[in-house]
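Sample entry (180 residues):
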Amino acid sequence: VKEIDSLPQFPENITAIQRLIIEKKSEISDIARKISTDPALTAGLLKTVNSALYSRPNKVDNIFEAVKLLGLRSVSNMLYSYGTEKLLKLEHHRELYDHAHRVAFYSFTLARQVTKSKDIIDDAYVGGILHDIGKIIFSAVRPELLEKIRHFTSERDIAPGLFEELSAGYNHAEIGAKIA
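Predicted structure, serialized as tokens:
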């Protein structure tokens, strides 16, 4: 836990866009302009707004319109997802990223079935993406320990959370809770 000051950071373009979203004086055009400087983020935003999830009658190909249609909260949540993917782009993190994305998708889908509140639905998605933040921290701070835990627990058929706690003093859920 004392080593948490060495966590990996979201890419600067993501944090800059998040700052623009939080800033009350920012215009949607400022946010759209900043997003458009990142080709992958631009493509992801357009893919999202044109997906079946949003059921648009006409294709949206303008970043400004896409940001307006999705709303700042949805764009912010998309940035969390995109930033997490960038943090976990190393191959040994792929499984962790894929898992977080699946949980986010299922959380989002379940929330849509239960409520009409867009804020709650968006929060369910972000909660799914970030639910294993403790594993990300474990992975960033002690990658060798995480790999040893995975190997040992699968070899001996032991619950990984229990072994994490025994070997490191905290399990990933407790670390994530402290960070949150």
